[in-house]
Amino acid sequence: MSLFEVCNLSAGYGDLTIVWDASFSIDDNEIVVLLGSNGAGKTTLIETIVGLNKVKSGKMIFNGVELQGKDAAAIAEAGITLVPQGRELFAGMSVLENLYLGSYLKGPRSKRADSLEFVFSLFPKLQERSQQKAGSLSGGEQQMLAIGRAIMSDPKLLVLDEPSLGLAPLIVDTVFQSILQVRQEKKISILLVEQNLKKALSVADRGYVVESGRIVLEGNPKELLANEHVKKAYLGA
User: Fold this and answer.
1) CATH assignment of 2-79+157-235?
2) What strand order describes the sheet that includes 65-66?
3) Whole-model pTM over 0.85
4) What residue ranges do the domains of the chain occupy?
5) Do 211 and 36 form a contact (C-beta atoms < 8 A)?
6) pLDDT > 70: percent of the chain
7) How confident is residue 147, by pLDDT bands cut at 50, 70 and 90?
């Protein structure tokens, strides 16, 4: 059985439906990527997964438990953590304080020391800047902090929304290398939302293409990169 399953999910805002009849799955210790252009419905889909939008129809099943209808706090406590687009850090608080906020629940709090050690090994710059205000960090360092804060929550499923957005290529490489390291060392499943198709597929086990709120393609990286529609729509071929 999959760790997480989305079954015929429709979602949106008020009377407006953005995501239509979406179905996909994520297995234990797997990296799955949702690909698509800006406005395709990817962010709406993951905001629904983490409880920020209401499910209009369909099911979300995590570890055998249905999550639709549960609020964001309950979903976070179940073990799903979002690294949001835009990072949403507490700019006036220190790096260390932001990291500690990731481990506020009882379970993660008991593992705080080990989680912090792992985050600092993953992103040494955060340890160097642990007493600096989060707002004083560079864009790349802020993205590292957002990922680190999510890891502090000891998730079973880590959801990253456009982690490469606005970052220099060298920092993008660092971020994607960290994603692989998190999966390898923490055995965390990862749902990655990205427009950078080649980079995302370089770390993913499987991918789904989202267009106009619908999942239109799925496959492994080799299959998706060879697909004629993907090549024309996303690779300029």
Assistant:
1) 3.40.50.300
2) 16-26, 4-13, 55-62, 65-66
3) yes
4) 2-79+157-235, 95-154
5) yes
6) 99
7) very high
